[in-house]
Amino acid sequence: MVVDTQDEMVVQPTLNEKDQVTEINPEQLDNDAENLESAILATDFEAMKEIVLPPLLDEPKILEDVVNTWTVQNWRALSKKEHGPIFQAGGYPWRILLFPFGNNVDQSSIYLEHGFQDANSIPEDWSCCVQFGLVMWNINDPSLFYHHTAHHRFTKEESDWGFTRFLELRKMFQQPWDNSGHPLVENDSVNITAYVRVVEDETGVLWHNFNNYDSKKETGYVGLKNQGATCYLNSLLQSLFFTNAFRKAVYQIPTAEDESITNSAYTLQRLFYQLQISNQAVGTNELTKSFGWDTRHIFEQQDVQELSRKLIERMEERMKGTAAEDALPRMLSGKVKTYVSCIDVEYESSRIEDFWDIQLNVRGIPNLEESFKDYIQQETLDGDNKYWAGDEYKYQDARKGVIFKSFPEVLHLHLKRFEYDIQRDTMMKINDRFEFPEVLDLTPYLDQDADKSEPWIYKLHGVLVHSGDLNAGHYYAYLKPNKDGWFYKFDDDKVTKATIRETLEENFGGEYPASLLQSRTGLQKKTPIMRQMSAYMLVYIRESRLDQVLTPVRKEDCPPHLQKRLDEEAAAREAKRREREEQHLYLPVKVITEETFKRHGSTDLTNFEANPAEDPAAPRFYRTKKQTTIEELVGLIAHDTNQDPKRIRLWIMVNRQNKTTRPDQPIMDTRPTIEETYQRMATTTREYALRVWAEVADEVDAEGNAIWPTYQSNANGVIVKNDLILLFLKHFDAERQTLEGVGHIYVSREKKVEDLVPLIAKRMGWGEKLPSGEQLAMWEEIKPAMIETLKAKLTLKAAELQDGDIICFQRITERKSGELLGKLPRLGEKNSEETPKRWDRYDDAKAFYDFLCNKREVRFDPHPRCEKTDYQSFILTLSTKITYDQLSERVGEELGVDPTHIRFFTANASTGSPKSAVRRAASQNLGTILNPNNYTQQTLQTKPNSLFFEVLDMSLAELDTKKNVKVTWLSEGMTKAETFDVLVNKQGHVEDLVQAFVKKAQIKDEREGGRIRVYEIHHHKFHRELPPNYPVLSINDYTDVIAERIPEEELDADERDFIKVIHFQNDASRVHGIPFKFLLKEGEPFSETKKRLESRTGIKGKAFEKIKFAIVRRFQKPAYINDDDVLFDEGGTIEDDVVLGLDHLDRTRTTRNGGEMFLK
């Protein structure tokens, strides 16, 4: 039984609401709620209805109100559970469900439930939305009553809803009610009245719990999965998807030659097609990966407008040269004119620019129409702010503003819901009420000479909504996929129908209407409740172009190669699904054969994790039904290996305590199933699979049956085990530096180790014995890291050898007569006439085994500072025990460069870019380089098995005497910045840095090209200029070093005549770009100063015209400068805390949360 005890709405004030101070009368506060109810009688059903059925926030249409009273008598004699009489409401039967003595509580429990007698006759999808109130009142005095209110979506599964804790039993019987002298239940009787209001479920999801909800079935559309905090991306993608013309244009981008997950156009095509055909919510992981996003970006809420612009720009780039080249500008781009028009003379300066979206103010503006008026309102330039109209008209009064020349077919409007609050010094969300219409006429905002032959009427297509505050919010969208259809709410993976009221009214923001908050009492009534959800982006489509923009998109419009690829992937997923479903019927079998063992060049008999499709040494894999017998399995193996089944015997593989896997004993009875064999004989493994070794008999009898050396059945069927043991042989070839499987042999345990020599020599084809001067060294491979020398005179029994053990052997040159078998030359020991031994060659098998245990494939990439044409990436297999110098030697050999001139860098785990340089130290080896400090936080941030290399112009020893200074060179004012890494002697000065930089950047030196200024900046602010004799070691690591040619006019200027210049956007705290020093001239009007600034910065034309100039002081707002202002009065001084600010757009703008918004 599902219950609901919530009978009044409690709302917490938001951060944006102002605290309200109110004088409170305690008695009045206590009596507010009682005064109204005390004057009402429970028999006045209409009056009571106003109390128990208050207006709902959802404002659904009321279909029927019904009041039904049940007089309950002999309360104490009632059973545990009682039902009231059935009554009709909304065409369905209802009744009161009563637990007189509580539903497992010490209070009476009362519910409303549907009154269907036969639950099986209720349709599966039946539902009815009901608001109801339950009132308990005294049968003699109707002024004494108690009530609860609720609303619920009744279904076949949720047949009742109400209040488990309706009223305490002691209050009902033992205490006078409201000081009346009578209990509520008097003479064991009481009335219970049900007020039932059946409301219309217009969308089909009113008060839905969304258990087992199917978006595709209910709406025909599917949602997008949220990766963490990607709801803002999901709402934008759905908006673009349902702009059908945009979807078609994206489909026209040629991607057949680049079906890569790094191609954002291809991944967007995949996403759109999946949204079009899928029955389930679609993931966006592929798309965000193609953007170059890592986990940090996925869990940050990025700037939606920035993302929208960059995504559309990227698609426009990919459409160039295709059939869809002009589709996006035609669909999404309009034109706006910026002008300054003189009032008294016929002179106007204007420019027309393209726009892709419009940002509109919200604060203090009631609706969209007024915001458009605010956008195009004119500013009068008069008085001290007159406009310079050229030499002909001089300074004139003028009007400055913008006006639209045309709007796009699809208009994106970004509402400024997030603004910087100077008082709180942070970004804040604006929840002001801001209305927008379903139909919008944009004619009033067009220039007089704009083309108006076609109406500029727009229909609302989408409302993108933000719910919550700046730091903890959620995004979703209301979209209208069809011209005359419904709006739908796209909330991540859930899609539901939406009413016009939900789409418009609920997303205007502002306060909730007081009429919807009648249940609030006392202080609650005096505190306004702000809606937390509000529109932040609107999408309108020109009414006359609706058919073109919302043109149907068919499956055929999708690129055929994409359909084929996704169909193949869907078929593969379906096959995997069926495989998972049938997995319980199968038992995987992994089989080692003589062939796979011979191809295995590493430790143990095989690598059970290897893939047979990629590695010929991998064990054979059989997906076999559990009921398959061992005999049938042998037949499968025999067929695959072209052998007679009679000659094959399977050995069960077991896990030894030393974590190796070896054959233990043969499976003699082939009648059981593989499942029975696995359960009876196999030991626990990390994976669910039967592991076996397939032995092939060397001899057969006259009937073709195998003759086995041991574990042979006699005539009576008894298994005979003799003293022969099964050994596997491996050969280490020191010349070729290889370890290879040779095969297996059976040897008596009483034989000595030296008795194996002729057997091995014969198997290897070396003859009956080894040539004079050679001997055979042998080891037992106990486990990969434990290789023990076998003594020649020991018996196999004494050496503790058993079935499945591995013997590794190696031919060695006998060093002197009488040398014992197994005594080897020490590593690196060579005759004087031989060439020196290489450190990466191994004289004996034991050393080679050590290499196998510590080997690692390492990828080497050239550092971005290296010329890509000079060096390529490569992969080396190396031991983690090699030293830094040995690593340099091996890489130098690969590159063909001096190993002393190579520097290595670890790689960042998340970005893959180079981290800091690796220090050359005696204690360093490859293992500590790749895994610093074992598994610390630093290790987690380092990409394993990857290093960057840089080929230096000097040795590392010489490099240690240098300091690396990153110098940014300004070659064309402030418009072009190039960064160079400059090495300079640690004992040098800035003048040495300049000389080294000139050589590195390949520019003219100071004698030919002019003097170079070097200065430091910090957080986009000028820090200090560095004189030529300034020590290099004193340059701060936390600052950026800037170098530029000193303009001729500044060469001999007085230092007191300079002002520092910064770049900022709107707010002086939002600095960006590279600051610089600028020479002021006494008495110069700013109109002339601007010309010199244009030359100094290198910013030309329209970009320079957009810059606003201001004087910036600490803790003060910028004071913007007029053309006739003079910054440096004659005889004046420039204050130290004053800087000149250039207010213009930050082209490297970051998102609200500070992370860079980028798409690869």
Detailed description of the structure:
The structure is a single chain. The chain has 1160 residues and is α+β, with helices and mostly antiparallel strands. The chain folds into six domains: 174 residues, Apoptosis, Tumor Necrosis Factor Receptor Associated Protein 2, Chain A (Sandwich); 134 residues, Cathepsin B, Chain A, CATH 3.90.70; 173 residues, Cathepsin B, Chain A; 131 residues, Ubiquitin-like (UB roll); 109 residues, Roll (Ubiquitin-like (UB roll)); 107 residues, Roll (Ubiquitin-like (UB roll)), CATH 3.10.20. The chain has 30 helices and 54 strands. The N terminus and C terminus are likely disordered.
Task: Summarize, please.
With 1160 residues, the protein is an alpha+beta fold.
CATH superfamily heading of the largest domain: Apoptosis, Tumor Necrosis Factor Receptor Associated Protein 2, Chain A
Report on the biggest sheet.
8 strands, mixed
Mean pLDDT: 85
Strand percentage lies at 25-35%
**Count of extended strands:** 54
Radius of gyration: 42 Å
Distance between the termini: 53 Å
What's the CATH architecture name of the largest domain? Sandwich
CATH level 1 class label of the largest domain? Mainly Beta
Any idea how many domains? 6
Model regions low in confidence, pLDDT < 50 over at least 5 residues:
1-34, 295-299, 816-837, 935-939, 1150-1160
Q: What is the CATH third-level topology name of the largest domain? A: Apoptosis, Tumor Necrosis Factor Receptor Associated Protein 2, Chain A
Q: Helix- and strand-based class?
A: alpha+beta
Helix content: 10-25%
Taken from the alpha-carbon principal axes, the silhouette is flat
Helical element count?
Answer: 30
